[in-house]
Amino acid sequence: MGAERVTSERAARLFFARWLEALTTTYPAHRARTVSVGVALDEVLALADSFVRSGGVTRATADPTESGHGVAMLPDVASEAVTVLRDDPLLKRPFGVRTRVLTELVERLKAKDNVTAVLVEQLRAIVASLRDRYLEEGFAEAERLINDEPKRQGDIEKLAGALVSELRYQGWSDEGLRDVAREVCPQAASRADALQRLRLRVLVKPREFTCFVSVELQGQRLPFPEEQGLSLVDALPQGKREGRPMKDGTYLKVNIHAVDPAAAAALAHRRVLSTLGAATIFLPGTGIQVASELVAVHTDPGVLHTFEVQERLPEEKRRASSEQISKILSASWRASAAPSADPLHDAIRLRHRAMMAVDPESRLLLLWTGLERLTAGTRGYGVALSAARELTSCGGAMASGRISEREMGRSAALLWPSTTNDLRSAFPGRSPESTAPETASPTSASGPSACVTWPGMRIST
Predict the structure, then answer these.
(1) CA 83 to chain CA centroid, nearest Å
(2) Which residue of 22, 74, 325, 450 pairs with 418 in a disulfide if CB–CB is 3.0 to 4.6 A?
């Protein structure tokens, strides 16, 4: 009995070690960045629903749900979702029958002729029932393995990683999951007891947090919709302060639903950055932008905690003598004497390289690099590029790594419309549907002359 208890305790320690490793290590391969069951199913469900709404055709519409962006990737996404379902360490045991039915439905989505509204609704119903029980059953399975089969260490590690990935997808931040695990371990009599405490702490519903994002005003105050929880304030509320001090000035007060304060801060910063970026794109003279990566959040009544929302890249620690540092500075200073290439000429060269690129992915990357060269160093260029990424037709697909050849061609045409026309003449054998947008862009041009537009500038080449 004593030996079994020791073995179970070691298995519980292994579970928490893998949990914390997935949240703290700087080695990317060990971080919980894999596609969880929830991510895979929601993604394939969204694409299937968009396919039905749009009729399987990508087109420009006012309603994004009917535009059909990314529907060309539905067979590939469905294939990946089937792989995720079959490899998930939890679905094989408690959800055996439901998983088989779910896998068969997703398999049918590989053929576009099978994508119907009835199939989408069947899939949606099963996914909803699975989502409600996945985490509960996951922690129950972890307790069973630790108590009854503690020697199945590989399954315990996989289950810990799957739970972390799913919790992150459902809104938990790395900081929140890490802090909860570190809090429950000292309070529990054993690691097995700590697992039960961990389950109670993380299986919670989102609640509303009031966040304050520092903004810089250079022009008029925009009429933010206060009925949606957006308002400008000139000072932070009084109360206890925790964390790094915020900059003095104007703040955008927003209400965010999240499961932990760090996640609320990250979500508030991302949404405010995207919203102000859109205003910068459509109204370049507004002069309002996010001024800091710090976000203040009301964590408790009268307590304002500051979170740093942008993750810092790991820095390699290097040592150098004074002589070596002097040589580095001297060489850099001599190199800076050479004039740098003109951004406009660089952008023109990148455009010509894009004209010669056959595959849409290389074309899109070259055009995007050209835009960065044109705008780098100008005031607010980072905000403008971020907003462009959010507003282009395939922005979401670019972020998730899912973008079809057709979508790449459309985005390339939107970013630099004249390239599409030049490519048609340069590569007459290529199908035009992978590069041409559904509707003509107001900045499109034909022939050797082209016009590039960007907020605040107009350049002819």
Answers:
(1) 22
(2) 450
Q: Indicate whether 304 and 351 sit together in one domain.
A: no
**Angle value at C-alpha 155, between 152 and 156, nearest 5 degrees:** 85
> Does one domain contain both 148 and 19?
yes
pLDDT digit of tens for each residue in the chain (461 aa)? 455 555 888 888 888 888 888 887 554 444 445 678 888 888 888 888 888 888 887 776 656 666 777 788 888 888 888 888 888 888 877 777 778 888 888 899 888 888 888 998 988 888 888 887 888 888 888 888 888 888 888 888 888 888 888 888 888 888 888 888 888 877 666 766 788 888 888 888 888 999 999 888 877 778 888 888 888 888 888 888 888 888 888 888 999 999 999 999 988 988 888 888 777 777 777 777 888 888 999 888 888 898 888 766 566 777 888 888 888 888 888 887 877 667 777 888 888 888 888 777 788 788 888 887 777 766 656 666 666 665 554 434 433 344 444 444 555 555 455 544 544 444 444 443 343 333 333 333 333 333 333 333 333 33
pTM: 0.66
Answer for the pair 8, 146: CB distance below 8 angstroms, yes or no.
yes
Query: Which two structure tokens, joined as six digits, stand for 213?
Result: 């994002």
Q: Closest Cα to residue 90, out of 147, 141, 22?
A: 141
Instruction: Output the six-digit token pair for 357.
Output: 């690129």
Is 61 within the bounds of a domain? Answer: yes
Q: What are phi and psi of 247, to 5 degrees?
A: -70, 145
Please answer whether residues 162 and 89 qualify as being in contact, where contact means their C-beta atoms are separated by less than 8 angstroms: yes
Burial 287-296 (b: 16+ CB within 10 A, else e): ebbbbbbbbb
Spatial distance between the Cα atoms of 352 and 362, rounded to a whole number of angstroms: 12
Task: Answer yes or no: are the C-beta atoms of 162 and 90 closer than 8 Å.
Answer: yes
Q: Give the C-alpha separation, 324 to 356, whole Å.
A: 44
User: For residue 111, what is the DSSP state?
Assistant: S
Let me know whether 188 and 161 are in one domain: yes
Decide if 254 contacts 266 (C-beta within 8 A).
no
- Specify if 143 maps to a domain: yes
Contact 363, 419 (CB under 8 A): yes
Q: Quick one: the chain helix, strand, coil %, rounded to 5?
A: 60, 10, 30
Structural domain span for residue 449: 343-460
Number of structural domains in the chain: 3
Which of 268, 258, 246, 245 shows the shortest CA–CA distance to 176?
258
Residues 454 and 365 in one domain: yes
211 — alpha (psi -120 to 50), left (phi > 0) or beta?
beta
